[in-house]
Design brief:
The chain is of the alpha+beta class and 649 residues long. The chain has nine helices and 35 strands. Strands 1, 27, 28, 29, 30, 31, 32, 33, 34 and 35 form a ten-stranded mixed beta sheet that branches. Strands 2-13-16-19-20-21-22-23 form an eight-stranded parallel beta sheet. Strands 3-6-11-8-9 form a five-stranded antiparallel beta sheet, with no helix packed on it. Helix 4 crosses helix 6 (375-389), helix 7 runs parallel beside helix 8 and helix 8 (474-489) runs parallel beside helix 9. The structure holds alpha-L-arabinofuranose (AHR).
Length: 649
């Protein structure tokens, strides 16, 4: 593909030295098609992305499996311990999945002095006015005690009751109780706890305690509404799941074992996630798929491929075969007919008869970490088996072009390769003009399956990084935007791209990685400047790539056009600290509307958003007028600008 972009020429220092800064767009012909699935999302359980994040469950350690020794996140009420004691109990479990329960022994209580147990939630609870919360409790009691129990959302000190309900009818056998707690005209707060109390002495066991606020599309076991809205606003075309490291696990036993994530919640034991905490698996395989469906995004499924993070690999051949079968069955669960396939029928039983559309399967994650060199043969075994059963599917290697050639898959030609780029903003700005030059245009399609700019000097996996704010500043967003422009310029080859990680619960105990795209606590959420940069890109894109070139300027950019209407989206990124009067030269344009809509994300590099200042850096809309095929647009310092031109070639 011949493109003007190979003609990038940069000012040696600041743009103030530039004589004639110009950005040229050749409108006479398109040089490629924009991938319709270019912008998507990547997700895994990290930073309490699901438990304590998108997955709307409010009770932390709901099945008492988080810790083997103590009932973490649970405490006796009153906190003095007078009259109530709690302990983990392994006798008479509900089933072999929930192999433990919480025993509450109340020795002293009356109407005015209830005693019981409280849960601290995921760093509090989102108490909102006039809201329904659905509680589900699996409980049994000592012989002769039938209740009642009071289930309530209360203030942290217990003095204010936001909502409460009584349940009775307990017996010596396990029984499930479901009640709805409804708040009145309360003030929104996170400073709350969930309580189950008795007004008389008694012993009760709990195996599972769950509380859900209203969810997106009202799905039971569903997702948090505010976070889903933020994702939908990014207009994602695909969702890569379930990882990342999360698909691999630290060990083979703690991989994402999809079969254990299906069906009733009481059948899901959860598992230790590689980011240091236990995952409930409440957001399991079907929930991932329904999440994609709710966003109108296609699933990009990563399957476990026989390598786990602590360096274990399964030998290709007979040893690997059970894992290959596991992947084939997983694909059948996603795509199989509900009537004629075993796993399609299982999906229907779980509530989704209609098969999901699937085009891409990723074999593992970052397998360059497997120093045994087994990936080539593991990939071949998985890919051959997948294609034999599902010839329409494309397989993705996790070792991309950015890795040394010695690591690349040689025994097969993968359909697509997954590249991961975590770089400083400055590195992105430097590498972006030539980004796609290194790619073999006859090689595999490219998926930039994880990328993010950090500000510097701490890289995401550096411990010092965790002490920085969880989401990045505008400086990083400028690097992100330069990189996105580079990917969009080559989006005939780069078919999909997604930032990672997507989510962070901002409470210090919840975080493992920075930078992250969207931050939240129990009740509020905000987008980082990078979130808004992505939004600018993903919502303003045409279907044809136009050739572009920068001269005598540090401004980088890209241009796409909607073939049907001629409308052009021009995206420009000014990383410099000075305003840049940029000559925009639209070559070959026959007619141009004199007015255009503009969206600008700008500020100082240190500007950032947070829970308390969620909108310090947000896009601003404006219009420009008096446009001609050659016009000057002054780029603000440190800015990302989208100009929506109405043109005809
Ligand atoms: O995005 C965080 C981690 O970075 C992913 O789990 C892993 O694939 C990469 O190393």
């Amino acid at each position: 593909m011949k493109k003007l972009s190979s003609l990038f020429i940069f000012a040696v220092t600041g743009s103030c030295l530039a004589a004639n800064p110009t950005f040229t767009v050749d409108v006479s012909q398109s040089v490629g098609k924009v991938s319709p699935t270019l912008y998507g999302l990547m997700t895994e359980e990290i930073n309490h992305s699901y438990d304590g994040g998108l997955y709307a469950e409010l009770i932390q350690n709901r099945a008492f499996l988080s810790d083997d020794a103590t009932p973490v996140n649970w405490s006796a009420v009153p906190s003095s311990g007078a009259g109530a004691a709690i302990a983990l109990d392994s006798t008479r479990p509900f089933n072999d999945k929930l192999k433990r329960s919480l025993r509450l022994t109340v020795t002293q209580a009356d109407k005015n002095h209830p005693a019981g147990v409280a849960n601290s939630g995921y760093w509090g609870f989102p108490v909102q006015p006039k809201t329904h919360y659905r509680a589900a409790i699996l409980a049994r009691a000592e012989a002769g005690f039938s209740g009642p129990l009071t289930v309530a959302l209360v203030s942290e000190d217990g003095s204010t009751v936001y909502a409460s309900k009584k349940i009775s009818g307990l017996s010596a056998d396990w029984k499930k109780f479901e009640v709805t707690l409804t708040t009145g005209k309360v003030e929104a707060t996170t400073k709350a706890r969930f309580e189950i109390t008795l007004e008389q002495p008694g012993t009760v066991w709990f195996s599972f305690v769950s509380l859900f606020p209203p969810t997106w599309n009202d799905r039971p076991n569903g997702l948090r509404k505010d976070l889903m809205q933020m994702l939908v606003d990014l207009n994602p075309k695909f969702l890569r799941f379930p990882g990342g490291n999360y698909v691999e696990g630290d060990t083979i036993e703690t991989r994402f074992e999809w079969k254990k994530t299906l069906g009733p919640l009481e059948e899901r034991p959860g598992h230790q996630c590689p980011w240091g905490y236990r995952s409930t698996d409440g957001l399991g395989l079907l929930e991932f798929l329904e999440w994609s469906e709710d966003m109108k995004a296609e699933p990009v499924l990563a399957v476990y491929a026989g390598y786990s993070l602590k360096g274990m690999h399964v030998n290709p051949g007979a040893d690997l075969e059970p894992f290959v079968q596991e992947a084939l069955e997983e694909i059948e669960y996603v795509t199989g007919d509900a009537k004629t396939t075993k796993w399609g029928a299982e999906r229907a039983k779980n509530g989704h008869p209609k098969p999901f559309k699937l085009r891409y399967v990723e074999v593992g994650n970052e397998d360059w970490f497997d120093k045994s060199g087994s990936y080539d043969a593991r990939f071949a075994q998985f890919s051959d088996a997948i294609k034999a059963r599902y010839p329409q599917l494309k397989t993705i290697t996790t070792i991309g072009n950015d890795q040394p050639a010695t690591n690349h898959i040689k025994s097969r030609k993968p359909d697509m390769e997954d590249e991961h780029y975590y770089r400083s903003a400055d590195e992105f700005i430097k590498m972006s003009p030539d980004f796609a030059v290194k790619y073999d245009r006859y090689g595999p399609e490219v998926f930039v399956g994880e990328w993010a700019a950090y500000e510097t000097p701490f890289v995401p996996w550096d411990d010092r990084s965790k002490k920085e704010p969880p989401t990045p500043s505008l400086k990083a967003a400028i690097g992100d935007a330069a990189f996105m422009a580079a990917m969009e310029r080559s989006s005939d080859l780069i078919r999909m791209q997604c930032y990672a990680p997507l989510f962070v619960n901002v409470n210090p105990g919840a975080r493992q990685w920075r930078p992250d795209l969207i931050g939240y606590d129990a009740i509020s959420a905000y987008g980082s400047p990078s979130y808004y940069a992505i939004q600018l890109f993903s919502r303003n894109v045409g279907d044809e790539i136009l050739s572009t070139a920068s001269a005598e300027t540090e401004v980088q950019g890209c241009a796409t056009r909607v073939a049907r209407s001629g409308e052009i989206f021009l995206k420009l990124v000014n990383p410099s600290a000075t305003a840049e009067p940029l000559k925009i030269d639209l070559k070959g344009v026959a007619s141009l509307a004199s007015k255009a809509k503009v969206i600008t994300l700008a500020g100082t590099p240190e500007d950032s958003n947070s829970i308390t200042q969620p909108t310090q850096v947000v896009p601003v809309k404006s219009t420009v007028s008096g446009l001609k095929p050659e016009f000057t647009y002054t780029m603000p310092p440190h800015s990302v600008v989208v100009i929506n031109l109405k043109a005809r070639p």
